[in-house]
Every structure is written in C-alpha cells, then in structure tokens.
Design goal:
Elements (H helix, E strand, L loop, with lengths): L18 E4 L1 H11 L10 H13 L2 E5 L2 H5 L6 H12 L3 E5 L2 H16 L11 E3 L5 E3 L1 H8 L6 H10 L5 E3 L3 H14 L1 H20 L1 H6 L1 H11 L3 H8 L5 H6 L7 H16 L7 H5 L4 H4 L2 E3 L2 H10 L7 E2 L2 H10 L5
Parallel strand pairs: 1-2, 1-7, 2-3, 7-8
Antiparallel strand pairs: 3-4, 5-6
Length: 335
C-alpha cells in the first residue's frame, strides 16, 4: 500500500520554504483527486495528496498570471477554471509572476546596470509574495507610467480608455483572476486566438529561418530585446543620451538566467524542426519560472527541451510527480 506522504512528519523549523510551480495538467490532477476521480494511468493519487499537503503547510506556490489563460482554453467552463484556481488559493504561501516578458525585461535591465552603475533603470519586482500584502506593484503599470512611448499612441489611448494601469494594484485571488480571464476571453475571442496564432507562427518562422538566426545570433537577440522587450525605449526614457546599441551589445545573456534559458530552449526547438502546437504558447510562458523556482512540474515535451538546453536543470524540472517528491526529499525540503 502506498504511503499517503512519503516524507516524515513535516518539521516546524524550515530555513526557507521551497518555491513550487505546477502547470495546468498537474493542478487538474489535484482537482481530480479532490473530487475522487480516477487519474490518468501511471499517476498516483497519494503522491498528489502529498504535493497538496506540502502546499497547504509550508511550501510556496508560484502563480503565473498567464497560466489562467490556459485554464479557460478549449472546453473549459467557469466551474472547471474555478476548481483549478481553488488549488492555487489553498496554498499557504503564494508568489506571483506577472508576465514572462517582464521577467526577461527585468534581467536585461539589470545587466545594463551591471555594465555601468550610472545607467538608470526602473525598479519593479520579478516575484512578489501574495500572502502578506493587500497590494502588489504592477511592473506593467510602472513601465507604462514611467516610459512615455512604452505603448504606441493608439494602444495607450485604448488602454487608458478601458482601464488605466496603476503602479499599485489590489491582490486578487486566483479564482477572481480566473473569472476575469474567462470574461475577457468571452468578450475578446479573436484577440484570445491571435495570441495563440501569433506564437505558433513565430515558432514556425524560427524553424524556417534557423540558418539566418545561427549565422548572427547576437543581432537576432538584440532585435528581440528592442522589439519585444522594448529595452531601448526604457533605457532612453531614463538615460536620454545613452548609446543604446553599445549597451545592448554588452549584455551577457548567460548572466540573465531566464533570458538565457529562453533562448537556449528556442534554439533547441529550431534545430528539432518540431512544429509548435496551440498549447505551446502557455507552456513557453512558464519558462521564466524555472530559474526562480525550486521544483517545477511541467509538460513532458517542454521538459525535454529545457533539459536539452541545460541538463543541470534536471534536478528541479520534472514531469513525473514521483521524481519531484524525491527531489524535495534529497534537497532537504521535506522531512
């Protein structure tokens, strides 16, 4: 008979609660266990109960806001989205990651400042603790308010007409966030689908242009920092006379853990020639979690690319719950 939880009695003396990330499939399995439903073959209900016990007691759960987009995809209903969100809300300690591109932006800006301490950059966090505050800093709100051209004029007007972006926002529960996301999807079905189509087309284009990319990776990545992250606009807003290209050329991507992983995984994907699936957009949005988490449970194919990019991440990135629990034991997080 399997043990309900393989670790010993949880110690009350924990030096640092481990940060755990669960993708949608693993959260859904906890929902199934709660409802007494049968799990997919090879999955252990007892092990998912163990993971849930850790989350309810002392482990920190990383909540990626973008994950809610996956909770409402396909045949998802308001009830199914609420059930997933309820697992997140039941965690004793929660951390929030606002968006993947904001993590990349933070790391790139820090690298700019590391080159020259006189370079001024905006201050915003990567991970925030949801458990002990009624408000959070909005990285997007900070950038919009402090960088005049961060949004194009027409986009800024649309955003401000609908809802201005404050630099401080109230803490919402995962359930509230799921409901808001579902409402947004229902009101904006074309925009919701464009997000998926755009990401799929981008990955397909990567494969087609891989020879061009590998002939000049640095130029390609600098264009990404300007176009996607808008690092040039941010730097210029705080440093009007700055040599943008000189600073960006000096960025060491290996010192930017999430950026470096993103590009390594993207390169492995290019070389594989594997065409992206619709749900890849949500999986890839979780990549920045990996450097900042202690245990990451993710989709099997994404894990394969992550370990191809950096085999050392095999100690924290898993698809199998058994392996994740073993890692918690080995690392001294579970007693």
């Amino acid at each position: 008979m399997q043990k309900i939880c393989r670790s010993k009695e949880i110690s009350k003396i924990i030096q640092r609660p481990p940060k755990i990330y669960l993708d949608a499939n693993h959260l859904i399995n906890i929902v199934r266990v709660r409802k007494g439903e049968t799990l997919p073959q090879g999955q252990s209900a007892d092990e998912y109960r163990c993971i849930e016990k850790y989350l309810r007691s002392y482990c920190g759960l990383i909540f990626n806001l973008s994950a809610a987009l996956e909770w409402v995809e396909g045949r998802a209903t308001a009830e199914s989205a609420r059930e997933i969100a309820a697992v997140v809300d039941s965690a004793k300690l929660k951390y929030i990651l606002e968006a993947d591109y904001l993590v990349y932006t933070r790391e790139a800006l820090d690298q700019c400042r590391d080159q020259n301490p006189n370079i001024r950059v905006p201050d915003f966090p990567v991970l925030q603790n949801l458990s002990d505050s009624s408000t959070l800093s909005s990285a997007l709100g900070i950038l919009i308010s402090q960088v005049p051209d961060y949004l194009e004029d027409n986009r800024r007007a649309q955003v401000e007409e609908r809802m201005p972006f404050p630099t401080k926002v109230p803490v919402f529960s995962a359930q509230q966030w799921a409901e808001n996301t579902l409402n947004w999807k229902q009101k904006n079905p074309e925009t919701f689908q464009k997000r998926i189509d755009g990401f799929r087309d981008s990955l397909s284009e990567d494969i087609e242009k891989r020879a061009e990319y590998f002939s000049d990776c640095q130029s390609y990545q600098k264009g990404w920092m300007k176009g996607f992250l808008k690092i040039d606009r941010i730097l210029r807003a705080f440093n009007p006379l700055i040599d943008i290209d000189g600073v960006l050329d000096g960025i060491d991507a290996t010192e930017c853990s999430a950026v470096n992983l993103y590009w390594k995984v993207r390169e492995k994907r290019m070389k594989s020639g594997n065409r992206p699936q619709d749900n890849d957009v949500d999986d890839y949005m979780s990549l920045p979690v990996v450097p900042y988490g202690d245990i990451v449970l993710t989709e099997r194919n994404l894990r394969t690319f992550i370990l191809q990019a950096d085999k050392n991440l095999g100690s924290k990135v898993f698809h199998n719950v058994t392996d994740a629990l073993d890692a918690l034991d080995r690392q001294g997080f579970a007693w």
